[in-house]
Structure formats: structure tokens, C-alpha cells
Amino acid sequence: MNSSPVETFEGAGAIFTFAGQEGIVQGIFWAMCAVLVLVVVSSAIHEIAIGRKAARRSRR
Amino acid sequence: MNDDVQAAIDAALAGHTTINLEIYYWWCTGLMIAIHAGFLAYEMGASRSKHALASGVKNILAFAFMIPTFFAFGWWIYLSGYNWPFGADGIDLMAWDFEGAAAGVPWSENMGPNLQDQASGVFWAAFTLFACTTASIYSGAVIERIKLSAFIFTAVLLGSVVWILGASWGWHPSGWMVLQWGYRDVAASGVVHTIAGFFALGILIPLGPRIGKYNADGSANDLRGHNMPLTVTGLMMIIIGFFGFLGACLIYDPGNQWVNIYGIPSNLSAFVFNTLMGMAGGIIGCYFITRDPFWMMSGALGGIFAVAAGLDLYYPPLAFLIGFIGGLIIPVGAKLIEKMGIDDAVSAVAVHGFCGVWGLLAVGIFCAGYPGVGDIPAISFMGQLKGAGVMILIGFVPALIIGILLRVFGLLRVRNEVELMGLDEAEIPSQSYPEFARWEEATAGDRYDRPSRPRYDGPRGDGPRGDAPRRDAPVLRDRVERQEMDRNDPDRVPPVPPRRPS
Predict the structure, then answer these.
(1) First to last CA, chain A
(2) Based on the structure, what is the number of domains in chain B?
(3) Domain membership flag for residue A9
């Protein structure tokens, strides 16, 4: 896969990978957002599980 | 020939100008990292030892989440929201400047390596670190009982939405507060500190106090952090970092006069005069009332925040007096918040919220009549007063609403059992003071016999972990042996084992 948006740096503007290929760039962007959401949601689930376990233990 | 030489000189000068601009903001951004190192040390020291690492994780993650989310939408909000929600015909919820903010769309060619754009990256980075600062300001207030996921969500709301919208209104040369009221807040007393301080207040109300903070009769206990030297050192590091923060509040243009964020002429000399004088005033103000190093270092910060809004205009001894008053406000304000039943663990509301408001009003009192440039009107007390009101509301209201919603769904606060046990024990695989825990195990056997003490097997539920107490410590041997005998008693609640870093 050739991710380069330029053939030469001479006079080039945006040089980041896939620049100019908006579909791919947006896909990567939304993947980043998905990772952020996934981590927060997994953290919330983990905390709920920990809280329940701690409550169970303290009742024994 | 002369034309060729002149052209070569101009080209070289232009190149240096661009490079100097980038270097300036690069190092301002780097210096601002010290703010976060300071907040990390400060909050961990201000936590009790059983929560110390959880406070650190919270602080580190706030930093980490702020960067991608500010990339995703924070920077775009700043560039586009300066007139929102006011359109040409009144309220218009679509009154974003889509065209002007095209360079801030996360998939635009400016938001990444671009050889033709030397400004977007460094300005985005500086603003990102401002955003991280707002989140760190808020994080200290809620330590020891907020859920990590709730904290991340609310920190992103503050750092990548709320404060930056306020900044677009009042910290942007085209912001509606600037153009209509002449609102002036050069180094962010309002847009960073007031907003973050009152956002913290809005979350603290539904969050509630830490267990043990208040007695049945309503009197408050002082839940001191476990490491005052670490706390005070952290505060000093925050001050170092704020020199990067304040430097980045100036627009660097090597070919011309420096200007502040509103495009009004200014310079670093003005900033440094008043930063140091305000800081000194804040320290002495807190010392005058409390004689306590924690409050004195908080006063240093409060003094800087109190003078920040007019940092480029004050006569330095006046900045000292404004900082001094800020230093007086902090302990009094913190006591007031405590008496209201609100447990602000690090007094963020007083240091940032109250001193921020005082800083905005001080500009209205002492700098009224200073002219603006272009369409920006002169400074007025009413403009500053209204501006302070907006900053309070934009911080407080969204936080209160979101905090109540999270609380209703049980997502805001950890369970009491987890809080009593300590967030580190429940959530963190490593230990803050493992050798201390071993000593505690070996010397506190009696306390483990209390039936109410919760037992916990570690965050993964994989059973008791950790080293057995050292058998070769003669002084402790009898206690160790007694504990081992106790362990064989089937009716006894087992002790919490010392834990080993995984």
C-alpha cells in the first residue's frame, strides 16, 4: 500500500499519510474515536464489576 | 546584484521568522508539561495513601484523553464557535463558522504534517495543553471517590468542549463577549480558571463528600493527604509550568510588535513583571492568614490567576496587591465551601474559581478605560462583571447537569466498600508503598480481627496475592507467628494480604 500523498517534497503541502484521500483519513480518525469510547466504556464496566465484588466480600 | 542580495536576506529572514515562531511555541508547550507533572505529584500527595495511585492514574488519563479529543473537536470549536449561538437574526444554533474553521476539521490538510503550514500544529498544541490544564484543575477536587470512567467523560467535556467554547467567546479577537462587552482576559483568569473551578463545583455537588469528611453534627474533618512534601513540590512544579502557559498566551511575531490574544500590543516583559509580583502577593496573602505551606503554595497559584486577566496592564505593585487579595480569598473561600457541605479535596474551587473571578473583576476595577483595537471596545467594569457571570455559568451549569445524570444512573461515584478499602486496592495492579504494606501487615495483626473489615482479592479476583511476611525479622516474629496461627482459624476474616506489583 502506498500511503504517500506526494512524489516529491519539492513544493509539497500536506505530507501526512493518506493526505488527500479523505475517506481513508476519516476512517482512521473514527477508528481513533472508537478506541477512546471503547476504553471509557470498558473502564466503566470494570468499575461496576469491582464495586459489586467488593460489596459481596464485605457482606460475608 | 543588490536586489539579489536583498532577496536572499529576505528569504533567510523569513525562514528564521518561521522557525523562531515554531520554536517559541514548541518550548512553551514543553514547559506546560510541568503543569501536569506538578498536578500529578500534587494530587497523589494530597490523597490518602490508599488512594494515591488511583489519583495518579486519573490525572495521567485526563492528560491522555484530552489530546485526541481536542484534536477531534476541541480545536474546531475554538475556531468556529466565537459567535455561537448568536446568528444575524438572534439565537441560531447553527451559527458556527464552518468556513473559517475549515483548517480545524480533524481530517483537513492543516491538521497533520504540512510543509506549507507552520502555525496550525504549534497553536493546536498550545491550546491542547491549555485544555489539559483545565482538566487537571478539576481532577484534584474529586479525588478518592469519583469513578475513573465518569472522571474521563467529564474531563473531556470540560477540556474539549466547555472551556474551549468559553475561550472562543472571550479569548478570541472575534468572540462575541470581546466585541460586545470589551471583555478582557489576557492570560485566562476566566476562560481557564473560573470555568474549571466552577465546573469542579458543579460536579462536587452531586458527587458528595468523601466518607469521613463530615461528622453527624455537620462538622468537618480534615482528611489530610499522605505526603505534604510531595504536594508542595507539585505545586511548585505547576508554577514552573505556568510560565510556559502564560508565554503561550502571547502571539509571537518576530517581525512586528508582539500582541496578546486579542491582537492588542503587548510583550513578555509586561507578563513577567506581573506574574512574579502576583505570585509573591498570593504567597504572602495565604501566609498572613494560615502560616501553612500548603496554603502558601496554593496562594502562589491563586496570586498568578488573580492577576492573569490583566497581566499586560498592571503596575507591578498593584499586581502584588491583587495577588495578595487573591491569597486572602483562598483559605476563606475554601472554608466557606467546606461549611456548605461540599468536599473539595484540594480547594480547586477557591484557588481557581474564586481567584479567577476576582482576577476578572480586578481588570474592570483597575483597567477600566483601556482601549481595544479594531472593533474591540474599551475595558469596562460592567463588561468584566457580565463576563465573569458567563464564565461561572458555562462552567457550573453543564457540570451540574451531567453530574446529576451520572449520579442518577449510578455511574458517578465508586461504591462505599471500594472507597473504604481504597481505590488502589480495588483498581490498581501496583502498590504505592509496598514495603510499608508489608510492615503494616506484620505489625497490625489485631486490627485484622475486626469482622467489619472487607476482604478483597485483587482487581482480577484471582485470589489473595503477595508475599508472606518476612520470617527473618526477629522483632516482628512473634506477631507474624500469631498471624499465621490466626490464618488457620476458619472463623476468622482473613487479613488483607500485602500485594506484589504485577
Answers:
(1) 59
(2) 2
(3) no
pTM, rounded to two decimals? 0.86
> Does A29 contact B72 at a Cβ distance shorter than 8 Å?
yes
What's the sign of the alpha-carbon dihedral B378, B379, B381, B383?
A: positive
Is B90 contained in some domain?
yes
Whether residue B481 sits in one domain with residue B339: no
From B276, B231, B321, select the one nearest B44 (Cα to Cα).
Answer: B231
C-alpha dihedral sign at B393, B262, B348, B49: positive
Q: Which of B356, B374, B408 is the last residue of a domain?
A: B408
Which residues of chain B are within 8 Å of residue A9 when distances are taken between CB atoms?
Answer: 115
Give the number of domains in chain A. 1
Q: B456 with B340, same domain?
A: no
Instruction: Give the residues of chain B that fall short of pLDDT 50.
Output: 445-482, 484-490, 492-498, 501-502
Measured between beta carbons, the chain A residues lying within 8 angstroms of B69 are: 36
For chain B positions 413-432, those within 8 Å of chain A (CB to CB) are: 414-415, 417-418, 421, 426-427
The ipTM assigned to this model is 0.87
Q: Are residues B334 and B274 in the same domain?
A: yes
CA distance A20 to chain B (A): 8
Interatomic CA distance for residues A25 and B323, integer angstroms: 48
